[in-house]
């Protein structure tokens, strides 16, 4: 209960009959805490229904809230009582009742007219706003406002902090209230034991370079970030269960039996499995034509008595379920159902019929069904589902039919091309790879089917059902990445309602998070990367419902042949990630006043062409129509609709991820996360944005939030992408000032990769350098020497991480890409694009930008090694590498190219490449040079290159030195 104190004497007299106390004099009112002013104004806005408002309206409402608080204080209400209302400890209605009625606008105006003071103005000079607190305050304001997408609370946060400082609160009090660390704990401040700055003034500050001012970062010990390998694989405990499966010895036997031409294990749920095999009868070594028939055998350990409900797929019409030929059904002892659409065959054995397998002295119940198939039957596959004998349960394969490919007919292939696509390549002979390739050959196939099949395989991994966990996860990642870059079909001969697709996405993402929590090392890194290939899912039904509501609300008819109706039909039947850029393009079209060029430009930037729009099962064949009289309403509706689409299809969107993970964000992460939310995509300080994103990631990892589920992992990925985008925006033109990015980007990389020990040691060595040097300032020679040594070490670490990914994903990407029929260019660049999309690429840009200035300060040689090595060949000089990248040199060649961009190929026959240009260590050219063991070095001094050019046509022997230089001497012609 709020008790109003007596107003006391000296105030204005209350009107006759007014039960409210007299007003206190204005000078008797205590200082008004500005944090209370902000909360009070927010509560008033919330009670008004959270209306949309302009900045001027928000400021006016803030001032009205301040006047109301001042009036309440003059009436004798204490600050503690007002805080109780602001904190929700006293309901507003109860507070109003205790006052005897609401405070009216007239009262507030009267209070102001009687000299009610505004919040105390700061005496000049105005107190500086502590930047390390802005992010925390912005996050709290964003959270209090309902976590709106794209909202920037940075200015509001500064205003609140400035007002609190003006009211007399100290920075230490604000730090305590917000739970923020003081700036002395930032990495940009002087480190304990770090040497003094090399020079009093920087050559170019980060702000002058375009990077912007630093906000600082909370200090961490880099060695605490090292990810120690687990004592044992975390899935090891699950593996004995898989070995004890009754089907395990049969699976092993099928893999070793030459007569078995195809086999696969299907999960039926609740721990039950189904083993399907195709066996050639007769001599397995005889030609296929000499085998009179095949035997399809299905064996299961399911507790329910099973019935096989089956049909076939013809080779010339593989998408259709057909009834089995009467002779085939009769040969299997199966009966055709009424209507002839399918046959049914009961499994033999099981617990009820005493069919057992002796394993380690224990008899386990199994049940089996067999279907003989003539080799000349010319069938593509056996298609089936399972049901219990009482008909109460049905089993399907991830929402579709089970399918057993048949090597029958003239082609002698494995039916629909699936098993043959994997044959001959040792990387595709494991059960996971074969299951992936076979699934992609299914005639009726959508994203929903792919996501459900991936969930099945991941659940098998999580249950310990595979020996090579890391390799299996890498194969699944390659598969889903090919899908995410549109190299696999998103919809074929099947329509999927959005709610069903959303459920499949949700199942897959939660399964990935479960695998992440049960693995470590590279397996965990692959699991994390899997989330980058699929959206969150969630309320996908809103995709279908909301577009119809928008059309009805804006009186847009469902008229065939119009753009809106065509997109509506696509959304209704098969929503895909393409719908996000389609919506963004339509919004740009509306914002531009109906400019068709803007619409197509946004689509092109996202890789969506007119041909792709027209290729949909429900095609979009016309251009959008502009409704000028409804433009503003449509903009508001489709901005909200874009949030729905991103929530379903865009997992690592920062705003959506922060909203979804708000309840698990550690307190220490709120300040940097708030800053990142307010400044991502605004074009502000790139350095401060990178620092904030990396600090937020660090606090998420330190607080154990990443093990809590997919929401924290998606937020971590979104912050990683934010840091990468900020670095790529600022590093290119920063020059030596890019050194300020190196510490946060090393920390960012350490948080992402599994084998991060060398990266952490590089970060520790970098932080031991003088703060001025690390910020991009001038460096003394000795300090610059130490810095270049650290940069060389960091460059080698980045190259090693890149090479490890390329070595793993290159062969897998080539094998699976060939099996999928992916475009050649995507297969060739698959592994490199994965590296360039990750955190190592941003770091490599910063290293390349900062290194020349530091090498000059260290008075080192002009050479910079990109790919060390030794070579012998004839020197050839060319103006540009691009001009000769497709040329094949007939003899070993040392190529001097005066212009290199990093995107070219290494020409055939080139054993060494020299240039004045130094592309980053993760450029396509640098990666190819390392993979081909080609010496690649850049020289920042034209004199040595001119000296080399004078030797054109001579045979040279080159070598790279431990100091990072290149030496050469002439060699005998016959030695080449």
From TrEMBL:
<feature type="domain" description="DUF7067">
    <location>
        <begin position="35"/>
        <end position="84"/>
    </location>
</feature>
<keyword id="KW-0808">Transferase</keyword>
<keyword id="KW-0067">ATP-binding</keyword>
<keyword id="KW-0119">Carbohydrate metabolism</keyword>
<feature type="region of interest" description="Disordered">
    <location>
        <begin position="106"/>
        <end position="130"/>
    </location>
</feature>
<keyword id="KW-0547">Nucleotide-binding</keyword>
<feature type="domain" description="Alpha-glucan water dikinase phosphohistidine-like">
    <location>
        <begin position="862"/>
        <end position="975"/>
    </location>
</feature>
<keyword id="KW-0418">Kinase</keyword>
<dbReference type="GO" id="GO:0016301">
    <property type="term" value="F:kinase activity"/>
</dbReference>
<feature type="compositionally biased region" description="Low complexity">
    <location>
        <begin position="106"/>
        <end position="116"/>
    </location>
</feature>
<dbReference type="Pfam" id="PF22973">
    <property type="entry name" value="GWD1_pHisD"/>
</dbReference>
<dbReference type="GO" id="GO:0046872">
    <property type="term" value="F:metal ion binding"/>
</dbReference>
<feature type="region of interest" description="Disordered">
    <location>
        <begin position="405"/>
        <end position="424"/>
    </location>
</feature>
<protein>
    <recommendedName>
        <fullName>Pyruvate phosphate dikinase AMP/ATP-binding domain-containing protein</fullName>
    </recommendedName>
</protein>
<keyword id="KW-0479">Metal-binding</keyword>
<feature type="compositionally biased region" description="Pro residues">
    <location>
        <begin position="117"/>
        <end position="128"/>
    </location>
</feature>
<feature type="compositionally biased region" description="Low complexity">
    <location>
        <begin position="189"/>
        <end position="209"/>
    </location>
</feature>
<dbReference type="GO" id="GO:0005524">
    <property type="term" value="F:ATP binding"/>
</dbReference>
<keyword id="KW-0460">Magnesium</keyword>
<dbReference type="InterPro" id="IPR056301">
    <property type="entry name" value="GWD-like_N_Ig"/>
</dbReference>
<dbReference type="InterPro" id="IPR054481">
    <property type="entry name" value="GWD1_pHisD"/>
</dbReference>
<dbReference type="Pfam" id="PF23229">
    <property type="entry name" value="DUF7067"/>
</dbReference>
<feature type="domain" description="Alpha-glucan water dikinase-like N-terminal Ig-like">
    <location>
        <begin position="289"/>
        <end position="406"/>
    </location>
</feature>
<dbReference type="Pfam" id="PF23166">
    <property type="entry name" value="Ig_N_CWD1"/>
</dbReference>
<dbReference type="InterPro" id="IPR055495">
    <property type="entry name" value="CWD_DUF7067"/>
</dbReference>
<feature type="region of interest" description="Disordered">
    <location>
        <begin position="177"/>
        <end position="217"/>
    </location>
</feature>
């Amino acid at each position: 209960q709020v008790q109003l104190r007596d107003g006391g004497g000296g105030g204005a007299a209350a009107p006759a009959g007014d039960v409210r106390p007299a007003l206190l004099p204005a000078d008797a009112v205590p200082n008004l805490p500005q944090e209370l002013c902000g909360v009070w104004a927010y509560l008033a806005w919330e009670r008004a229904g959270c209306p949309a408002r302009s900045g001027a309206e928000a400021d006016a409402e803030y001032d009205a809230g301040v006047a109301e608080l001042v009036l309440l204080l003059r009436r004798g209400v204490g600050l503690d009582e007002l805080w109780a209302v602001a904190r929700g400890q006293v309901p507003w209605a109860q507070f109003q009742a205790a006052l005897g009625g609401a405070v009216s606008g007239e009262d507030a105006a009267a209070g102001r007219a009687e000299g009610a003071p505004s919040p105390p103005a700061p005496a000049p000079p105005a107190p500086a706003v502590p930047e390390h607190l802005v992010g925390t305050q912005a996050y709290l304001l964003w959270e209090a406002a309902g976590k709106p997408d794209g909202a920037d609370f940075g200015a509001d946060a500064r205003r609140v902090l400035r007002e609190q400082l003006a009211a007399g609160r100290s920075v230490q009090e604000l730090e305590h209230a917000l739970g923020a660390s003081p700036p002395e704990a930032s990495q940009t401040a002087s480190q304990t034991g770090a040497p003094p700055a090399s020079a009093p003034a920087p050559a170019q500050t980060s702000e002058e370079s375009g990077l912007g001012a630093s906000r600082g970062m909370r200090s961490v010990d880099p060695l605490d970030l090292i990810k120690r390998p687990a004592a044992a694989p975390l899935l090891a405990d699950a593996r004995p269960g898989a070995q004890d499966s009754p089907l395990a010895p049969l699976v092993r036997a099928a893999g070793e039996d030459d007569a078995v031409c195809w086999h696969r294990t299907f999960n039926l749920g609740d721990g039950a499995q189904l083993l399907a095999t195709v066996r050639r009868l007769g001599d397995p070594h005889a030609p296929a034509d000499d085998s009179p028939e095949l035997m399809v055998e299905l064996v299961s350990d399911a507790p329910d008595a099973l019935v096989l409900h089956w049909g076939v797929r013809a080779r010339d019409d593989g998408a259709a379920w057909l009834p089995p030929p009467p002779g085939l059904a009769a040969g299997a002892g199966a009966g055709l159902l009424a209507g002839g659409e399918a046959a049914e065959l009961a499994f033999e054995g099981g617990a009820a019929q005493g069919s057992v397998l002796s394993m380690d002295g224990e008899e386990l119940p199994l049940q089996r069904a067999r279907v003989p198939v003539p080799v000349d039957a010319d069938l593509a596959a056996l298609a089936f589902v399972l049901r219990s004998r009482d008909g109460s349960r049905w089993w399907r394969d991830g929402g579709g039919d089970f399918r057993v490919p048949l090597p029958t007919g003239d082609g002698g292939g494995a039916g629909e091309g699936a098993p043959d696509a994997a044959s001959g390549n040792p990387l595709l002979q494991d059960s996971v790879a074969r299951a992936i390739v076979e699934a992609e050959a299914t005639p009726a196939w959508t994203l929903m089917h792919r996501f459900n099949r991936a969930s099945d395989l991941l659940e098998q991994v999580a249950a310990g059902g595979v020996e090579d966990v890391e390799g299996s996860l890498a194969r699944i990642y390659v598969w889903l990445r090919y899908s995410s870059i549109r190299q696999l079909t998103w919809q074929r001969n099947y329509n999927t309602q959005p709610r069903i697709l959303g459920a499949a996405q949700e199942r897959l993402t939660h399964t990935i998070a479960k695998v992440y929590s049960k693995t470590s090392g590279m397996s965990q890194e692959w699991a994390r990367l899997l989330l980058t290939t699929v959206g969150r899912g969630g309320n996908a039904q809103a995709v279908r419902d909301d577009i119809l509501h928008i059309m009805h609300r804006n009186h847009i008819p469902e008229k065939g042949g119009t753009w809106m109706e065509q997109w509506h039909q696509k959304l209704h039947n098969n929503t895909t990630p393409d719908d996000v850029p389609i919506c963004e393009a339509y919004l740009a079209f509306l914002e531009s006043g109906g400019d068709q060029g803007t619409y197509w430009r946004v689509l092109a930037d996202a890789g969506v062409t007119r041909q792709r729009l027209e290729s949909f099962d429900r095609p979009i064949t016309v251009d959008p129509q502009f409704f000028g009289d409804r433009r503003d309403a449509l903009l508001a509706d489709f901005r909200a609709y874009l949030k729905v689409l991103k929530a379903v299809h865009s997992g690592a969107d920062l705003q959506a991820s922060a909203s979804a993970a708000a309840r698990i964000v550690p307190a220490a992460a709120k300040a940097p996360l708030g800053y990142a939310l307010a400044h991502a995509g605004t074009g502000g300080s790139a350095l401060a944005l990178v620092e904030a994103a990396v600090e937020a990631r660090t606090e998420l990892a330190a607080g154990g939030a990443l093990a809590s589920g997919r929401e924290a992992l998606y937020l971590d990925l979104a912050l990683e992408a934010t840091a990468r985008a900020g670095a790529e925006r600022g590093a290119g033109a920063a020059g030596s000032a890019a050194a300020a990015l190196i510490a946060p980007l090393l920390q960012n990389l350490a948080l992402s990769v599994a084998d991060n020990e060398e990266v952490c040691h590089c970060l520790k060595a970098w932080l031991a350098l003088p703060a001025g040097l690390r910020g991009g300032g001038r460096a003394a020679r000795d300090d610059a020497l130490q810095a270049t040594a650290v940069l060389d070490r960091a460059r080698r670490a980045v190259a090693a991480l890149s090479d490890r990914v390329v070595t793993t994903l290159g062969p897998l990407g080539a094998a699976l890409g060939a099996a999928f029929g992916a475009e050649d260019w995507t297969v060739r660049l698959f592994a490199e694009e994965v590296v360039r999309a990750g955190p190592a690429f941003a770091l490599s840009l910063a290293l390349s930008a900062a290194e020349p200035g530091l090498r000059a300060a260290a008075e080192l040689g002009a050479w910079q090694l990109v790919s060390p090595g030794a070579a012998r060949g004839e020197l050839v000089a060319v103006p540009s590498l691009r001009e000769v990248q497709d040329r094949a040199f007939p003899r070993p060649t040392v190529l001097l190219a005066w212009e290199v961009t990093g995107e070219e190929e290494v020409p055939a026959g080139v054993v060494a490449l020299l240039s004045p240009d130094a592309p980053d260590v993760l450029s396509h050219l640098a990666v190819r040079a390392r993979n081909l063991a080609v010496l690649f070095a850049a020289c920042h001094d034209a004199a040595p290159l001119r000296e080399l050019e004078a030797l054109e046509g001579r045979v040279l022997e080159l070598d790279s030195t431990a100091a990072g230089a290149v030496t050469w001497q002439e060699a005998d012609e016959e030695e080449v």
